Amino acid sequence: MGGMQDTGTHVLEIFRAAEGQSSRRDADVLASWRRCVNEHRLDPTRHLGPRIVTQGELRQHRQESEELLRTARHGMEDLYRRVNSMGYVLLLANARGVTVDAIGDAQLDRELRHAGLITGSEWHERDVGTNGVGACLASGRAITVHRSDHFDVTLTPLSCTAVPIHDTQGNLMGVLDLSHLHAPQDKISQALTLEVMKSCARRIEMANLVCNHRSDWILRLHPSPEFLDVDPMAAVAVGADGRITGMTHNAHELVNRDLIGRPFSEVFAHEFEDLPVLSAALAPVEGVLEMQSGGILFARAVPPTAPPRSPAGAVALPAPLLAIHGGDPAMQRLAERAAKVVDRKISVILRGETGTGKEFIARAMHQSSRRRGPFVAINCAALPEALIESELFGYVPNAFTGAHARGKKGLIHQANGGTLFLDEIGDMSLPLQGRLLRVLAEHEVLPVGGTRVEPVDIRVISASHRDLAAQVAEGSFRQDLFYRLNGLVLDVPPVRARADLEWLIDRIAAATEERIGFTPPARQRLLAHDWPGNVREIINVCELCAALCEGRPVQPDDLPAHIAAAAGQPDRQSEHELLECLRQCRGNLSAAARLAGVDRSTFYRRLHRAGLMDRRQG
Ligand SMILES: Nc1ncnc2c1ncn2[C@@H]1O[C@H](COP(=O)(O)OP(=O)(O)OP(=O)(O)O)[C@@H](O)[C@H]1O
């Protein structure tokens, strides 16, 4: 990268600013510099550069950011079309600062890679110093980090304009960043970019609100009437019970008070029943809405486009749990039961074969809960016996030969305020089971070599592919620990028993970097394959296809031979046999499946394969 700032001058300016000297830099940039020096203890003389996460980590980040990716993609493409060939790259980072999507000029590929402006780069301010994504995440505000505003001198040729994207509940979902590799010296050159980016984020949030709140009234808001219909400044969603259910971030600023969950009439000086009057059908001119806090806004109400949500008795699932399946009845039941306990002190055991998504579900439960601490996963079978104790419980300074002089926090401590996921709990040794029991019973950890216990607040989700009750009976698992862990048992079905196979394949395909798609014959082969239990096999196939196809749709020939051949296998029951089972059982799917000698999901899949049923039914 050319145009780098002189290191000495740069470092000096940062240190002076961190000491509180006045500066002509923007206040948000100065605040970030100060955080970097005083809180994160970063050294401006060192080249920090973004870490590039592993492929596995990237897949995980993309899966967790599914809603963000879906929400932002259209807006990103639209924006990129306007700045194409102008030396820009558009990045989408999740709330942890990891780039989960990027659109850039293919001709600049080498330069972009060199600068780390690619998917999988991690831009948290704590690691990389002041940068667009990191500073935007830290402040929650739109920002331009222009050239020498960057903390790391090697980033100073760049100009990065980053805007926050919020979900409909007001939580920061991620950051959209437009970076220029060789921006002009003058920061004012980027003023327009900042405004364009803000408007792009606003429209993304607006589209997301409309898409996620089809059953609610949408109220578009603007301080003046001219833009109300074409580009409203903000919007809120109002549910059938008259309470505000969602908003775009600007609504919060426009109305200047908390909105989510509040009755409409508490925020505005109008009754919920008045909303139809503000709808376009009844009011050819925009309505004037008075706020309870004083002041007025122009408003246009759009009626619901879908029937009301949550019929009596149905559980409203939080988004992360909603995203663990695509209509499989057993998974739906699992998600509903899980949703009921996410914020309770009930221990959960996830039971299922290896690779069925136990950790994936545990993460979704953590994300659905109110716990703000981290999710820490421990594979009890993979930790080396000699290390397991110090890894779990930590140790005090110089606790044993080779120990770190400053001591170390254990994994249990790291999960404080969050969720501890204990995978393969059945493989834990009996002595360690005893120590874990103490942590769970007393809510405190005793580090190795220590004499003072430290309090911890953790929620435990454990997983096992073994039968823990049988292990208790044979004496290899402590009964008292079993009772502590065994609150709610959730059985995770293997892939072969899932009725949402097509959804699962599409979801995993969409999470590949190339976002692969399948031609109809390839899709048919994939659906006809008898998958084993492990989701990882689908991941492997999708990644292989992504590598082989380089962006074009996947053909049957691109699939591994055993899958490409699947459609010709004669293992299927004939259409006649399937229909006969159904007829004998008067259309009762479960009974027909029993009659055919298979489980319900397999029977259902066979019906689908034989073209006798739409996969979305049933
Ligand atoms: N519903 C899903 N959608 C997309 N990917 C999934 C889903 N469920 C699981 N996966 C992916 O499948 C892989 C295996 O899942 P996970 O590690 O959660 O399984 P596990 O049951 O905990 O495995 P193990 O028993 O080996 O620890 C992971 O990469 C995970 O991200």
Automatic annotation (TrEMBL):
CDD domains: AAA. Signal peptide: none annotated. GO terms for molecular function: ATP binding; sequence-specific DNA binding. Gene3D superfamilies: 1.10.8.60, 3.30.450.40, Homeodomain-like, P-loop containing nucleotide triphosphate hydrolases. InterPro entries: AAA+_ATPase, AAA_lid_NorR, GAF, GAF-like_dom_sf, Homeodomain-like_sf, HTH_Fis, P-loop_NTPase, Sigma_54_int. Keywords: Activator, ATP-binding, DNA-binding, Nucleotide-binding, Transcription, Transcription regulation, Two-component regulatory system. GO terms for biological process: phosphorelay signal transduction system; regulation of DNA-templated transcription. It comes from the Bacteria. Residues 324-547 form the Sigma-54 factor interaction domain. Required for activation of most nif operons, which are directly involved in nitrogen fixation. Interacts with sigma-54. This is Nif-specific regulatory protein.
